[in-house]
Design brief:
Layout (H helix, E strand, L loop, with lengths): L1 E4 L19 E2 L2 E2 H11 L4 E6 L3 H8 L8 E6 L21 E5 L2 E3 L3 H10 L4 E11 L3 E6 L2 E7 L2 E13 L1 H4 L10 H10 L4 E5 L4 E3 L3 H8 L2
Parallel strand pairs: 1-4, 1-6, 4-5, 8-12
Antiparallel strand pairs: 2-3, 6-11, 7-13, 8-11, 9-10
């Protein structure tokens, strides 16, 4: 498992002025500890944490993972490599699929089902997706050649969004350039261009992205 925990957490300032985003506490535990506990409960104990911003806060807390019943190694990014750049460090070191998760996510996803789904579909990469509904506050007209042919009052549009949880085969990791910044969106677009098989795995369980102050505060009130 690779946990991406190197971001600056700019949208959560001033909370992240003194600590990285994954170390912010929900229910008296850092977000990253919730992730690790969830992984361990399902048998995923070999964990790599990619760090950059205030990395010592993470390393000093989790150390080698023994206290938490897991084995932790670290990737220390000398410069910020984006949401996918750290993958290049693992090039040539993996023979099995890599489970990857952003370090600011609270979820009850079944990682075992996720991995089984990936293998069953013989995918090169699988993305866990969440549905997101957007309500248009206006009435929407459908027009054809200046003639109104239908009308929808405040329609709701449903989209699938990237949850920040992935399974990647080693061949995907080979695409990532060494020591260069790359975001996951760009990597996935390259995979699509190369006609690699990308699958979507729908999440029905709890999923929360603690990416901004509002989302963080919502978790504090639960």
């Amino acid at each position: 498992v690779l946990v991406m925990a190197g971001g600056f957490g700019k949208r959560l300032r001033p909370l992240t002025n003194l600590k990285p985003k994954p170390m912010l506490k929900i229910a008296n535990k850092p977000i990253l500890e919730h992730i690790i506990n969830r992984l361990k409960a399902q048998g995923f104990i070999n964990i790599i944490i990619s760090t950059h911003y205030k990395s010592n806060k993470i390393v000093n807390y989790f150390k080698d993972g023994k206290k938490f019943g897991v084995k932790i190694k670290y990737i220390k990014e000398k410069k910020a490599l984006g949401t996918a750049g750290a993958l290049s460090v693992l090039r040539g070191k993996l023979k099995k699929p890599l489970l990857m998760i952003n370090g600011d996510i609270l979820t009850e996803i079944n990682f075992i089902e996720f991995l089984n789904y990936h293998n069953l579909n013989k995918s090169d990469a699988t993305i866990a997706v969440q549905t997101y509904n957007t309500t248009n506050p206006y009435g929407v007209l459908k027009i054809k050649r200046s003639r109104i042919i239908d009308f929808f009052e405040k329609p709701i549009e449903t989209n699938f969004i990237n949850s920040g949880i992935y399974i990647l085969n080693p061949k995907i990791i080979k695409i990532v350039p060494k020591n260069q910044k790359m975001d996951m969106s760009k990597l996935l677009k390259i995979c699509i261009f190369k006609n690699l098989k990308l699958s979507a795995f729908p999440i029905h369980e709890l999923w929360n992205d603690i990416g901004n102050i509002d989302n963080f505060n919502q978790q504090l009130t639960k």
